[in-house]
Specification:
The chain is 58% helix and 7% strand. The chain is of the alpha+beta class. It starts with a strand and ends with a helix. The mean pLDDT is 97. InterPro entries: Glutathione-S-Trfase_C_sf, Glutathione_S-Trfase_N, Thioredoxin-like_sf.
């Protein structure tokens, strides 16, 4: 299997962490979404990463779908199967991915618009949404099980991205998440290699 990805992407990081956990080998294909390469557009009309290319050429896109595919391949090593545990894991994944999406909109406003065209109220609104989600997760993270599942990998990848792009702006209000990420990095050494990086 081949994975079209970029090192800074939190969603690609989540997928790589999930593959590592499931002992699945991936051929990594560094991909610049900005240049919209033909292979990416052919594999995912949205032009987004990560994209998993199966051995028969079938493409699988969106990190949640890719991770669910890995879960099925591995006999459910990623996603808990009892209703309560499934709900906790998927709720955590959805909330932290959503927080990252909001923070990305703030980042893109600065990255892609000239200063005079930036819309500060929109940036503030998206950042507020992200911070509300983090506050909820800060209060819930202690309840995650010891055995890593998709919630752990989503949380680690997204918090790693927030640290990369917004270091110093979110940690003070979320000490439990900061502590959790430090402990996860210690207990899961592969994170150092697979976390979002510039």
């Amino acid at each position: 299997m081949r994975l079209m990805y970029s090192k800074p992407s939190p969603y690609a990081s989540k997928v790589r962490l999930a593959a590592h956990h499931c002992d699945l080998m991936l051929e990594l294909v560094p991909t610049d979404t900005g240049s919209a390469p033909a292979e990416l557009i052919e594999a995912n009309a949205l032009g987004k990463i990560p994209v998993l290319i199966l051995d028969d050429g079938t493409s699988v896109h969106d990190s949640k779908v890719i991770c669910e595919y890995f879960d099925r391949l591995s006999g459910n090593l990623l996603i808990p199967q009892t209703m309560e545990a499934w709900l906790q894991a998927k709720r955590t994944e959805s909330l932290i991915d959503g927080a990252t999406e909001c923070a990305q909109l703030r980042l893109y406003e600065v990255r892609y618009r000239p200063e005079e065209m930036r819309y500060q109220p929109m940036m503030d609104k998206q950042w507020g949404r992200a911070m509300r989600a983090l506050k909820v997760l800060d209060g819930e993270v202690a309840a995650l099980p010891d055995q890593p599942n998709i919630a752990h990998f989503a949380l680690a990848a997204d918090l790693g991205w927030l640290s990369l792009r917004f270091g110093g702006e979110w940690e003070g209000e979320n000490p439990n998440l900061v502590r959790w990420l430090e402990e996860f990095a210690k207990s899961y050494p592969a994170f150092e290699e697979l976390k979002p990086m510039a």
